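Batch queue: ligand-bound targets. Current item pairs a single chain with 2-acetamido-2-deoxy-beta-D-glucopyranose. No template structures supplied; prediction is de novo from sequence plus SMILES. Inputs echoed for audit trail.
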Amino acid sequence: MALSKVWISLFLIVFTLTGSISEEESESKEFVVTLDHSNFTDFVAKHKFVVVEFYAPWCGHCKKLAPEYEKAAAILSKNDPLVVLAKVDANEEKNKPLASEFEIQGFPSLKILRYGGSVVQEYKGPREADGIVTYLKKQSGPASNEIKSPEDATTVIDDSKILVVGVFPEFSGEQFENFTTLAERLRADYEFGHTLDAKLLPRGDSSVVGPIVRLFKPFDELFVDFQDFDVDALVKSVEETSIPTVTLFNKDPKHHPFVIKFFNSPNAKAMLFLNFGSEHYDAYRSKYHDVAEQFKGKGLSFLMGDIEASQGAFQYFGLKDEQIPLIIIQTNDGKKYLKPNVEPDQIAAWVKDFKDGNVQPFKKSEPIPEANNEPVKVVVADNFQDTVFNSGKNVLLEFYAPWCGHCKKLAPILDEVAISFQSDPDVVIAKIDSTANDIPNETFDVKGYPTLYFKTASGNILPIELRWLQNLNPERRSCNEGWSIIIFGKSFCENNLMILASQETEKDGLRDEKSYPSPQDLPIPLPSHT
Ligand SMILES: *[C@@H]1O[C@H](CO)[C@@H](O)[C@H](O)[C@H]1NC(C)=O
Ligand SMILES: *[C@@H]1O[C@H](CO)[C@@H](O)[C@H](O)[C@H]1NC(C)=O
Ligand SMILES: *[C@@H]1O[C@H](CO)[C@@H](O)[C@H](O)[C@H]1NC(C)=O
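Prediction returned. Tokens below.
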């Protein structure tokens, strides 16, 4: 789950960057309602449709959203039915129980609360004002709209999205009710329509009178009919048939919802990256599509990504431009399998080899440093086994990211620790750039940076808790337990090794959360409270 979040963030960064970011000043009257732990429940109970943004004051994405959200709130304040936009500062200590009640894991998080809060739904719409307004108008209206004319049909059926249409001889009866329930349940993800006349629809048998559900999609066979009106069966049919055989990923936002689905799938994920502008594109596309058809229902999902949109993914996986066209498969245990410079005719055989267990996993690594003679040793994926597991020494290892501010603050301290142990042949102080190297196995739980682990000479692995001095209170500057860094039984506070955290650092939490490629550009997970 957590991994799929990272993947999604990493792909969606493109959309965030290309979306319009208007910095218009908000007007003096505020339309966004501020809520907190004291009045949240009462306020929500009084309203049929409230959108709540959980934010943190330090979160960059929240700052970008704020003027757009306010603009949308102003427009929607005139909407009928009333749509209220509200916000909760989830970083505020007293509001934290509220945030955990709604399982908030990153900022900003938007939820739609219907009918006094009895139905809670994820906000899955755009993040700029016009998009927010359009999405919420639709969400606050009926879940399914009647299609009465061919014009109605052409306005709702296009080549960017899925539309689910119920065809009925009359708008009553159990099938119609079940269709309505389906539409209510999945309205956040799909659009729905209903009609008395199949002739109005652009595809499929136009003589049916129903009841029948016809799903229109912009890919593959373009429409599918279902006749099992059990609600769960309907949900399942819609979910299953709405995944493209091959998900496309480029800068076109219409693919965005399908990319999310791809990453949320429990399957292993095959990704073919190439230049969509290349003359060989069609050859790759058709061969890849054949393979995807062949492996349908066999635990493997397929995506084809344009190199232009995939730079984030390339850095994440440690791939190089000269390797394209390439296929990478990532399994759910985090293993990666790579076929660089693949030819269209090699795709099928290679995927089969992978399935048969005949492909070795691929590991991202920086080159092994030639002279590793600084006090803090450099570990990379390719020498991890030798330096960490097989060295027979006590190893203190820092997992860091180049962009992480807290790691920069730790660096001089780590240096000092390393220098003080330099004459001890049994101790190694080391660091690994976790963004450029795959951590070899699941022994280390690296959720943020810096993360420190200690491997004893006998092979035990222990996480190390970093404790920064939280304020400048002079009494606390002594070497009290809980406020110092103690490594190998040596307390380093006496060598001025404590960090005097600024106000800013305190708010930030102690670590920079793990995300890619830079925390400012992504929905930032809640800071940990170690
Ligand atoms: C809820 O309480 C907060 C803090 O007292 C206040 O700023 C806010 O305006 C209140 N909201 C409503 C809708 O009463
Ligand atoms: C409607 O859905 C319910 C619950 O899922 C199911 O028991 C019932 O058989 C469905 N009705 C029809 C006509 O399929
Ligand atoms: C990680 O690697 C070490 C050394 O090869 C091994 O002892 C350990 O069992 C591995 N742990 C996992 C979870 O694979």
